[in-house]
Amino acid sequence: MESRGKRLVALCKNVNVQMLSEEEASNHKSPQNDSSSTDDEPLTVKRNRWTKSQPEKWKKNVMKEKRSMGQPYRSTKGILRPAKTPKPARCDGYQCEVCNKFKNKSLSQEDYKQHLQRRDQANAAKANDKIRANEDTTFISVSFDLQSVLHIPSSQVSMMYYSLKLCAYNLTIYEAALPNKAFCYAWSEVNGQRGSSEIGSALYKWIETIPTNVKEISLFSDTCSGQNRNQYIAALFLYIVQ
């Protein structure tokens, strides 16, 4: 204990302690509290560490939003990406009955030209409606189609492949205007089949969700007579507009 005390005394003697009087302490100014700086000097404001971040304004998130909406954007590498353009419609005969007839030489050249003209007119009308839907809030343009039959449950087991499965149906309605909302109406064969009554019910359910400011609707679909192109769907539209 005595040796430790002697060491502490020796250390204290080697430390130079400078004491300031009250007058000197009042005249002493720290650089942080120095108020003698002129007004011309810029003031440095510390950033608040609790400031809320705004992820929606980040460059990467803005780029992702523009890309998802089909608008032109600049990538992370600084490359300017153009806006999305719709692909030209194909009528190569894989799903078109008229084109298959023409390839098999069972359709005249004149009828085939009229078919191509109707195709071009329909595609032009769809493109014009898409532009109008993006500019006019009282107009909506959609396309709808029934997905291929879904078998439930889905499995790769061989015994499951040969088992009897439940058939499910899905009607998808896709809006042409940005941000391209999609609505899926699904049901199984327990609830109904895939005829015009079920398609009409799904369309009626979707029309009920449309905002009240919408005054006009255009719908595009294939010419499947059992689902879309029949008197029952036409009667549904007449019932809605009355």
Q: Can you walk through the features of this model?
A:
The protein is of the alpha+beta class. Among the domains are: 47 residues; 104 residues, no CATH class. Helix content is 38%, strand content 15%. It is built from 8 helices and 7 strands. The strands form 2 sheets. Strands 3, 4, 5, 6 and 7 form a 5-stranded mixed beta sheet that branches. The protein has a two-stranded antiparallel ribbon with strand order 1-2. A hairpin with a 5-residue loop joins strand 1 and strand 2. Helix 7 packs parallel to helix 8. The longest helix is centred in the middle third of the chain and has 27 residues. About 10% of the residues have low confidence. This is Dna-directed rna polymerases i ii and iii subunit rpabc2. Keywords: DNA-directed RNA polymerase, Transcription.
